[in-house]
Design goal:
The structure is a single chain. This protein is globular. 53% of the residues lie in helices and 14% in strands. Strands 2-1-3-4-5-6 form a 6-stranded parallel β-sheet, sandwiched between helices. The longest helix is centred in the C-terminal third of the chain and has 15 residues. It folds into 2 domains: 123 residues, Response regulator (Rossmann fold); 67 residues, Arc Repressor Mutant, subunit A, CATH 1.10.10. The chain is α/β, with parallel strands linked by helices.
Length: 217
């Protein structure tokens, strides 16, 4: 079972997410929190697989909670829930090690996918905001980024470009006309060559290196 903690200061939102997650046969909600301190304490004591974290909560806020959790309980993967007006905070959360982010109005299926992906060490970025979010903070490529990019094969580079758009392995496979298993192998190779932990970090690299730019495929 995938054990999930839900952190959101709105009780109705928490209840809705909990009902959705709890209805899945492979998931269980082990705790709920309405403020930052409770969220951090729950994760520290319960050690869930995934924490769904609202970015704006009473206390130090979801960003601080994410930073603490990823540092102190690295086995727990944090998926950030966000809205458009909090871009800079979400970017900082990704930098801190969050496993991805979703808009609060995302389809229920997308939220469930994000939980499953995070639990197995992967990540899901909402394609509706990926380019806008990361592009806003991306700098120009430096020598180190260029060298790391040069280590990728043309196919690996294309896979990285599609991952940075927020596509899942299945969606990348359909886009490139290859199997999902092949995409998985390419993603693993990309992560290894770039020296990054997961798809989120790879996406940040893709934007910062200039490989991908907002609005351009």
């Amino acid at each position: 079972m995938i054990r999930v903690v839900i952190a959101d200061d709105q009780a109705v939102v928490r209840a809705g997410i909990a009902a959705m997650v709890g209805a899945e046969p492979d998931m269980t909600v082990v705790g709920q929190a309405g403020d930052t301190e409770t969220a951090v304490a729950l994760v520290a004591s319960l050690r869930p697989d995934v924490a769904l974290m609202d970015i704006r909560m009473p206390g130090a806020g979801g960003l601080a909670a994410t930073t603490t959790i990823t540092a102190d309980v690295p086995a727990t993967r944090v998926v950030v829930l966000t809205t458009f007006d909090l871009d800079e905070y979400v970017f900082a959360a990704l930098r801190a090690g969050a496993a991805g982010f979703l808009l609060k109005d995302a389809d229920p299926e997308r939220v469930i996918d994000a939980v499953r992906l995070a639990a197995r060490g992967d990540a899901l970025l909402d394609p509706a905001v990926t380019g806008r979010l990361i592009g806003r903070f991306a700098g120009g490529p430096g020598p180190a980024e260029a060298e790391r990019l040069a280590a990728l094969t043309p196919r690996e580079t294309e896979v990285l470009r599609q991952v940075a758009r927020g596509l899942t392995n299945v969606e990348v496979a359909a886009e490139l006309g290859i199997s999902a298993a092949t995409v998985k192998d390419h993603v693993a190779a990309v992560l290894g060559k770039l020296g990054v932990r997961d798809r989120v970090q790879a996406t940040i690299f893709a934007y910062e290196s200039g490989l991908v730019r907002p609005g351009i495929r």
